[in-house]
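Problem 12. The chain below contains 121 residues. Write out its predicted structure in token notation.
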Amino acid sequence: QVQLVESGGGLVQPGGSLRLSCAASGFTLDNYAIGWFRHGPGKVRDAVSCISSIDGSTYYVDSVKGRFTISRDNAKNTVYLQMNSLKPDDTAVYYCAAVLAHLCQGPYGYWGQGTQVTVYS
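Solution.
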């Protein structure tokens, strides 16, 4: 069974850090580009980051550049999103998704259930 499971969300103060994990089962992430998306209150679901399947090239939306880092550990079949200097606007449900492609063009066919990230003062 193909499955993506996010974990690592939680409550954190502004300026704090979290590391999200996206663990895959039923398929190998090596051949997939992986994206992180988020859906915050009053906002549409937006892509925040992705990582390619071959050379590890990455993409970040402007609002998280310099603060978030995406990485992958193929041995663990897991992709991570390290989030530093968190802001209240980062509050959202974060989803990982996979596309069978080298790059991050989509469409993303596999999605996790999401993990809640809440940034508060």
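Discussion. Residues 52 and 117 are 24 Å apart (CA to CA). Students who got a different answer should revisit the alignment rule from Section 12.3.
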